């Protein structure tokens, strides 16, 4: 278990029988990588600023601001900060877990959930005697986590080394315009072989996997207040209209509407 990070000296409060949920304030420098580790408790990592890339159990999750990733107990995971990241980590005792104890997930953070996390993060140790108020907030936060809608931001990761090279390059730069045939030349496999590997190892096509990467990065960039035209260009779309159409198909709202909603809570 990882218990100390040189760039993050703040003490962490683990959950206990009397306090099954705790909220910890964390700050990660830009591009820092937290090595593979696990916890005895479950964790909900919620970025307020910046984004996280979390790898665990053969999957990668790109977690932008105002979303959160759920990590069950004992699941080994690696964390990479995309930019400077300010986040809250909600630690939950196994017996109180409101979500799966078997698999990770990215969830939407409601306004109420956000307010409860901030309220609990401000509860000083000397104030913990106010157990009735604290316990009510904890119970309500667990209920909100349980009902939070999951988001399709998980990316299955391949085992084949050729596919690993392709997928890692796209995670690092989702705008790369190479076709599958061009990737085949780069990684030393035929186009047909790569297409088969995407289906057998990742259960989706090359185009669908690349779109998932771009959607996750789009949420990160929009959450930072970047204009839609800039986001479209940075992700390799030929026009803002094409990007907006893809975004609305995936999330049900346009990038502009999404930015307006985020502005209400920033």
Number of DSSP helices?
A: 9
Low-confidence stretches: none
By DSSP, the count of extended strands is 9
Helix proportion range: 25-40%
The CATH topology assignment of the largest domain is: Jelly Rolls
Secondary-structure topology with pairs:
Elements: E1 21-28, E2 33-37, E3 42-56, E4 59-63, E5 67-71, E6 77-92, E7 105-108, H1 111-121, H2 131-147, E8 150-151, E9 154-156, H3 161-172, H4 180-187, H5 191-202, H6 206-223, H7 228-234, H8 240-251, H9 255-263
Antiparallel strand pairs: 1-6, 2-6, 3-4, 3-5, 3-6, 4-9, 5-7, 7-8
Helix pairs in contact: 1-2, 4-5, 7-8
What are its keywords?
nine-stranded antiparallel β-sheet; 9 helices; Jelly Rolls; 266 residues
Question: What report would you give on this structure?
Answer:
This protein has 266 residues and is an alpha+beta fold. It folds into 2 domains: 21-151, Jelly Rolls (Sandwich), CATH 2.60.120.280; 158-263, Arc Repressor Mutant, subunit A, CATH 1.10.10.60. It contains 9 helices and 9 strands. Strands 1, 2, 3, 4, 5, 6, 7, 8 and 9 form a 9-stranded antiparallel β-sheet that branches. α1 runs antiparallel to α2, α4 (180-187) packs across α5 (191-202) and α7 (228-234) crosses α8 (240-251). The mean pLDDT is 85.
Can you summarize this structure?
The protein has 266 residues and is an alpha+beta fold. The chain has helices at residues 111-121, 131-147, 161-172, 180-187, 191-202, 206-223, 228-234, 240-251, 255-263, and strands at residues 21-28, 33-37, 42-56, 59-63, 67-71, 77-92, 105-108, 150-151, 154-156.
